[in-house]
Structure formats: C-alpha cells, structure tokens
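Why run this: before we spend reagent on co-expression, it is cheaper to look at a predicted model of the complex and decide which construct boundaries make sense. The entries below are exactly what would go into the expression plan.
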Amino acid sequence: MQHWEYSQYYGNAPIYARTGGKNPIAYDVKNHQITIKDIARELNISKSTVSRALTGHPSVKSETRKAILELAEQLDYQRNMMSISLITNKSYTIGIVVPEFITSFFPQVVVGAQEEAAKAGYNVLVSQSNDDYATEVANTKVMLANRVDGIMVSISKETRNFDHLKIFQRKGIPIVFFNRVCDEMAVPKVVIDDYDAAYHAVEHLVLSGRKRIAHLAGPEVLAISRKRLNGYIDALKKHQIPVSDDLVIPYDLNLSKVKIYIKHLMGLENPPDALFAVNDPTAIESMRVIKELGLRIPEDIAIVGFGNNYGSDFIEPGLTTVNQPVKEIGKTAMTLLLGLIDKDTAQWRAVTKTLDTELIIRGSTIKQELPQSKR
Amino acid sequence: MQHWEYSQYYGNAPIYARTGGKNPIAYDVKNHQITIKDIARELNISKSTVSRALTGHPSVKSETRKAILELAEQLDYQRNMMSISLITNKSYTIGIVVPEFITSFFPQVVVGAQEEAAKAGYNVLVSQSNDDYATEVANTKVMLANRVDGIMVSISKETRNFDHLKIFQRKGIPIVFFNRVCDEMAVPKVVIDDYDAAYHAVEHLVLSGRKRIAHLAGPEVLAISRKRLNGYIDALKKHQIPVSDDLVIPYDLNLSKVKIYIKHLMGLENPPDALFAVNDPTAIESMRVIKELGLRIPEDIAIVGFGNNYGSDFIEPGLTTVNQPVKEIGKTAMTLLLGLIDKDTAQWRAVTKTLDTELIIRGSTIKQELPQSKR
DNA sequence: TTGCTCAACACAAACGTTTCCGTAACTTTT
DNA sequence: AAAAGTTACGGAAACGTTTGTGTTGAGCAA
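The model came back. Tokens follow.
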C-alpha cells in the first residue's frame, strides 16, 4: 500500500471536528462518516488528489498536501479499511485460531504474535474454539469471509480432518501452524522439540533414581502427545527401564478425569514413584489429588509437568517442568507468516522452526532446602 | 442483513471446486476469489438474483435458488465481508480493548464475550495494550479504521485522558466499559461492586480477629482501586479500627515492587497481622515474599486477594479471595453492546450492571484442617 | 514561435456486494 | 377479454477507496 517516501496519514485526531475559522463545516457528526469526498469538496479538489496526499504519493504539491492533512485531522478523518481492502484485495488482518484461552499459553502466544503484526501494520482476528472441532471449522469460515491475509493456527484436540484448513492453501492464503500442528500439511510450523524435551524430562526422573515412571499422556490424535510419549518411551529404553502399559494413560485433557487416573495409578500393587504429565494443568491437578491421598511429593512420587505455565512456580512443592518460550512462539510464527504474504506462492517453503526448551527443576522432583514456613 | 425466512448461505464447502459433470469450470484457483459474478455468469443469470438467493430473499424461484446454492458450494464461494460492510455500513465486528493478557481474567472475559458475539453473527477484534496508554490509543484508531460496530473496553492503568474513546461516542459507535471503567463517560458499564466486595473481604479479616490490616492498593487513577480502598477504609471504621496511613500502600501493579513493600511492612515496629491485596497476583507474590521471610500464613499474617484468579486455589495455603463471575462479565458486556447496535442513539441508556461477587474463604485467613503432606 | 517535457491535478473505472426500480410473463379478477 | 396483480428476474446505482490515463499549463530548448 505504501510505495513512497512520505509517511502515511495516521495523525492524532482532535475531539471536536471544526475548520480553522471563517468556514465552519456542518456535518451530522453522529452518522456521517467523513470520507475523502468530503475533504475534496471542501478544498475544491478531486478525490484522487486527496487519496494521494493521504497515502503519501509524491505527485502532489506540498501546500496542497498540507491543507489536506490539516483538514483531515480537523475532521477526524479515518480511512475506511473496508473499501481499501476491497480495492487492494488485502485486509491487513491476520487470523489466529487457537483451541483455548484458559491456560496462559495461548493468550501469551497471541500477545507475541500481535506485537509483530502491529509492527507490520497488520491487526489480528483471534478466535478460540473451546477445543471443539465444529467451532474451529466455523471460525475458519469467518476468517475466509473476512479475507484474512494469512492465518496462524493451533488445532483443537478433536481435529482429525483438515479440509477447512486446506482451503486456505488452495486459495493461496498462507498458513503457519504452531504448537499443535498438522502433520499432513506441508506448511511452515513453529514448534518446540517435544520429543527431546520429554526425553530429558523423563531422563531427569531416571537419573534422580526413579524406576517406575508413569505418564499421563495427551490424546493420541495430537502430534505433541505422540512426540512426548515417544520421548518418554525412549528415555526409559535408553536406561533399560521396561515400558509398562499399565503406567501409560492417554486421556482427553479433561482435567476432571485426572482424579480417577491418579487414584488408579496409586492403587496399583506396584504404584509408580514418578509421574510425567503431558502438560502443567494435568501435573498440577495430579499434585492436588496426590496430596489429597496423603502422599508426599517428591518423596512418595515425583512429578514433572510440561509448559511452565502460570502457577507452576508457586505451587508447593514447585513443579519441575519444561519451559517453552511462549511469546517467542507467537512472534516467530507471525514473522514467518508475514514473510509469506505478498510473496509468490511458488517461493513458499515449508520450514519448521524448532524453538529451544529448558527443563526447570523444582521441588516436585528434587527435595529442596526451601525456607521453612516456621521461624 | 437478514430479513426473510430462508437461511443465509453458510454451507460447508468441499475441498475441490468442480461442477457436476459435462461443463467443468476452469478458474485459476490460486488467486481468483469466486464472486457472485462468477456464479451469475455460469448460470446465465444476473448478479442480483445470485445475491438474493444467497441472502435468502424470498423472490427467487426455488429451483433457481437451489442451482445457485449448489454451485456456490461446489465453487467454495465465500462472501466477501469487505464489500458487504462497505454497502451496509456495518462490519459485523466488535472491538475489544483490554489492558493485558497475562492474568487469566481478560482472556476469560474475551471468551465469554466472543461466545455471545458469535451467536449474533459478529466476530471480535481483540487488542491488548500491555497497560500502555499510547498503545491503547493506537489500538482504538485501528478499531475506527476497521469500522467496528461497537467496542468493549477496559482501560489501561495509565489512561487518564479519554478523548480516544469519546470519538466513538461522537461517531455514534456504542461503547460498553467493563471492569476498569471510565467514570466521566456516560455509557453502559459492567462491573462488580468493588466497594462492597472489599468491605466484606476486610470485614472477614476483622471478624477473624485481625487488628492491624495492611492494604496493598492499586493505582489511584483506576476507579476499581479507589473503590476497593474505600471498602477497606469503611470496613475498618465500622469496626472501630483506626486507619493507618502506614499500612496503605498504593502501587502501580508492577509485581517486582511487591517484595519491597512487604519487607517494609513486616519490618515496621508494629507489623500488620493481615494484608488485603488489591488483586490476586499481588496477593500471591506477597505470599511468596512472606514465606521467604520465614513467616507463617495465616498465623503471622493473613492474606486476602481479589479476583479468584487461576492458581489461588492451589497455592498453599489456599488464598482467600473475592470471586468474580469472569465469563459472565464478558457475556453481559457483549449482550449490552449488541443491544445498542442498530438502535437509535437517542434510546441509549447508560445503565451500569453490577454482577455479584462472593468471598471464597481459604487457608490464607483461616487455619484449615487440610490433609497433611505426611502419612 | 513551435515543440517538448514535466509537474500537478482531474476523470473514471474498478473492487464485490446490496438494493431500488423497472419489466416481462403469468395468474387472477372483473 | 381487458384490467389488475403477482412472480421472478435484470439493470444500474451506490458504498469509499485506489490507480491508470487524460489534461492543463508552465518552463525550457530549439
């Protein structure tokens, strides 16, 4: 939209529209939006000149430009993005599709993404699906109708069919996946190395002496669940610890079920001495149940989470967990996406960016000398 | 937009565009968006008929309508909201302006709001300002340029000037405030009774025997801070407890400063035996510092927070706090807002909806018989 | 003077819809 | 059978911009 050296009109607007002096303009402020036509009429020039002045086109005399910009400010003119989008076939809007907004993860990603988008003059249309497939599909339709210039998506835990996302590919609208990606689509992705992170988390449990390590896994349909599970399995194998099916429970991330699973696990004749949870909410809920059972953490059972969510530092004991660079994920995905827009689709490359994680060791796995709660 | 009995076109789209049989249509799928013109040409009818069929206008023969809808599905047609907005002067978009996305509060509000909006066929443009005034102003400009049909806003902690919001009033775009409202603007608001909630929270401390109750207050520029402070003061007065300036510390909600204040308070020659924090993050951070100092909660000092944020239930001891109906706030505000759209501005009433709160009593104020961490 | 370039602007088409108005072909009423 | 009404559709204007092309007059070299 901007090809010239003059800056676009983004001036601050005064509260009351008025002209300088002798020639007050009477608009019905309530319902008449100021358009370039109003400015043109007022200044006795053509719409095109006004448009060029506002967008910074060079071929407009500086005094004309000045008069236009001043009047625009006075009238509190705001560009109508609808018509601009219509004619330029660009909406300057990026869609972000996330499965939930409850944990701090996705909101934080959105913050990072929005920051990058704003720098480039784009705004974002956020929609969350409550981890519901039908809602996710409906949300992507909205994105299409609103002609987003690209979408960033993390799929719901129910999503097995990707037709609603492939439409974007066919229409030449760039997609970038993050976190929960779709393996069968060859588009850019921003992830962390879930396998590696899980491997090291479990290895940490092994190295601290645990032998029977349980895993509350995520739904198998999500790639991140499978990767974390594989990291778990390989870490055990590496250290010659048998992988027992009894100790691996995939579930649908519905927290209310955690209680059942934990009770089941701790009721086994040979209960686990450690638990690797697929994410922090699961780990935290597990800790609650375990405390309820009167068991000690980490003495009776050590816990490792995944995500370093809000709260994992102040729960007691502190939760050992995998830290992911949340905001960075959002920024990276958005940067990748913006790089695809306006670029020939033939040049798109399905890169996968893998961001670094870090195992944060806290009291849920290693007894720590914390300040006592007694003096 | 919809006045007739037939449903609008929102059909599910197949992945590959194709016509039934003998007459395949060759469109450059990549860059040509399907328009009603394409459908009209293919069927040898006029754009107006196609438009009417898609919007559900009654005066189109059912077989014609059927053919149009079928072709639209096959071609994967999606309405271009830009042109619709342009002609109807409605964007079907609601702007939501929030100060932050870190605590769970605002994301939750957005979820509630989005749910209501979706029901009415609106989508939302969310923007968070990082509690920065300039960003908030920039964000509202974006909302204007995008011709939102209304905005829901909770102001930043820095906002003292409301010109950027008054513009909406002048342009006849409805505003609804929630949580952090602007007192000087007569528009609908959705709040909780901060005064009353704070009063009861503090009274709870008094009734449990505390005499020296400190208050880590929010910035005075925010009405919610002042109201909570007043509730605190009046509860003390009611019970003949002197209000001591030493024990009231207003701060800018920058959590890194909490440590200083707590150390200061606990270092007083006559330290407080209770703390009322302006919000949960403040309370939780205070608890961390207090534990670090080797003090016991609630024996040495009782803590009350505000908000019932994520984590306040599993921190130890559990945080006594004021629960607010978060999702309900979002839903109520959105419902109020949607009610104003398309209604004559003369009929707008600046109602203030006050939602109920509830004091949740946990271990941070009352020693509770919790299951021990030892067996 | 003539011809040319160039700055500065005007004119008009275009983007994809909606919607008012018009009209032909039927259908019903008289 | 003529008049009136109805059904189903086409034509065209309009929304607020951007942008390619046309036009005007000034400045300058020949």
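The two ends of chain B are 66 Å apart (CA to CA). The mean pLDDT of chain B is 88. Bring this page to Monday's planning discussion.
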